[in-house]
Design a protein that fits this description.
With 211 residues, the protein is α/β, with parallel strands linked by helices. The protein has seven helices and 14 strands. The protein has a six-stranded mixed β-sheet with strand order 1-2-3-4-5-6, with no helix packed on it. Strands 7-8-9-10-13-14 form a six-stranded mixed β-sheet. A two-stranded antiparallel sheet has the order 11-12.
Amino acid sequence: MEIECYTGGFFQTNGYLLRCPEGNILIDAPEGVDAWLKEKGVQIDTLLLTHLHHDHVIDAALLKGNARPCTIYAHSAYHDDLTLASLLRSVMDKLITVVDFEVDELLEGQDRIEAGGLSFALKHVPGHSPDSLCFYLAGETDGGVGSSILFGGDVLFNGGIGRTDFPNGSTEQLLSGIHQKVLTLPDDTLVFPGHGPHTTVGEEKQNNPFL
């Protein structure tokens, strides 16, 4: 498995391309990622969404509309309230538009999915957004990127945590989920967040001022 990071859009959101033995996976769909993939000549088979905030899904409709559409997985069905697009338009001097798309597979209540020949454990960690999911790969990988990997969305950052001042946000809920479902993972687990550089569980245990 190979992992490549794309960063784009107003909020510099990360999307992760996983080249897997049985198909290509994209984690999140920030603005510009569809064009980036086309430049690389890569087609996506599976799109895994960590949550539906607009900056993580803005290219989802483009990916779904390609000649070979991908299968979209998310905790919850598309809803404008979850994208926060209307809220942000009201407080920012910027036109924010998210084209509606259909989530093919709803993951609420599930604890594992198979995609690209990989088995992801699902960790529901609300607080930043009620639909926040982390996708966890345990065990050895052949890409030289560590023994365990967590694609954490906006749950845990390098030196930070997701903001909780949006509607349905809760700092208490987010911190509880991080302590119960993330910090219990092996210390050498690589965390690939929705914004900023990657980190490890052990690093955040020791040095994250919010924890």
